[in-house]
Structures are given as structure tokens and as C-alpha cells.
Amino acid sequence: MSIKSMKDLFFHSLKDIYSAEKQIAKNLPKMAKAAGSAELRSAVEKHGQEADQQIERLETIFAQRDVAARPLRCEAMDGIISEAKDLMADVNDKFVRDAGMLSVAQAIKHYEISRYGTLIAWADQLGYQDASKLLREILVEEQATDQILSRIDVAAIDKKAA
Ligand SMILES: [Fe+2]
């Protein structure tokens, strides 16, 4: 894809996060099942379910500008998810595994928060108010889930892991 304008860059980035959300929706339910702590499991499940609704919002943004909604494989998300898979496969102790999974779930959230922040700025710059509004709705959800993950008692998990 050749990127010649801010509009091209915006949609390039939108296709990246569209792919990332699809990767999240597909993999997070598996990750949730591997969680030892019920609190972590429900936070990771919520995270996966949210991605489904966010995918629909992203598709609306593509449709608003008549751009084909084609995911562009997000290699950053591939990397984070493959880290999660390694942890789930290699770590036997459930508390140690939970501590690792919590860190991966937050890395995913922080990636998303950073991307949506940029996309909102670019949508505003391009005068795409309708897109900006939908992206802001997604960002609010991402931040709320990040807060939930932050409140999970990492200290308790870490202590048991130790
Ligand atoms: Fe998301």
C-alpha cells in the first residue's frame, strides 16, 4: 500500500488496529480459559468480548469513507499474542502464569490505547468528526478495561507466585 497523504496514513493505521482487534477477539477467549484467578479470567473475557463490538465500529468508519475494510496484519499484536501463547504453554505454576498473563493483557491494552489516541488526533485533523466520535468511544472502553486490569491484585498474584 502506498501512503501519500494523511488520509492514506489514517486508513493504513485503521487497517492495522482492525487486524489487531480481530486477533484479540480470536485469541483472548483462549487466554481467559488459561487464567487461574477468576478475577483475571473475567477481565480477559471482557477484553475479548469488547473487541467484537469495536470491530463493528471500525467497519462503520471504513464504510463512512467508502474504504474497503481490509485488515492489515498487525505484527506488533502477533508478537504480543505469541508471547502469551509461550507463557501459557511453558509456565506450569498457575500464579506465575497469571502474573505473566496479566502483563501481556496490559501490553495489549496499552498498544491499543496508543493507537486509538493517534487515530483520534488524525481523524480530527482530517475533519472526520463521525470517525473521531466512534474512535473516542472505543478509547474510553480500552481505558476502562486497562483500569480493571490495573486493579487486579497483582501483589497477591505475585506473592502467591513467589
Ligand atoms: Fe480493543
Brief digest:
By secondary structure, this protein is mainly α. The chain is built from six helices and no strands.
Please work out how many helical segments DSSP would assign. Answer: 6
| Whole-angstrom Rg | 17 Å
Number of beta-strand segments = 0
Strand content: under 5%
Shape: elongated
- Integer average pLDDT: 92
Major sheet: none
Report the helical percentage.
Answer: over 70%
Order of helices and strands: HHHHHH
Bound molecules: fe (ii) ion
Describe the structure.
The protein is mostly helical and 162 residues long. Helices cover 83% and strands 0% of the residues. Helix 2 runs antiparallel to helix 5, helix 3 packs antiparallel against helix 4 and helix 4 packs antiparallel against helix 5. It starts with 5 loop residues before the first helix and ends with a helix.
Produce the secondary structure layout:
Blueprint: H1 6-33, H2 38-64, H3 75-90, H4 94-126, H5 129-151, H6 154-161
The protein binds fe (ii) ion (FE2).
Keywords, separated by commas or semicolons:
0% strand; 6 helices; 162 residues
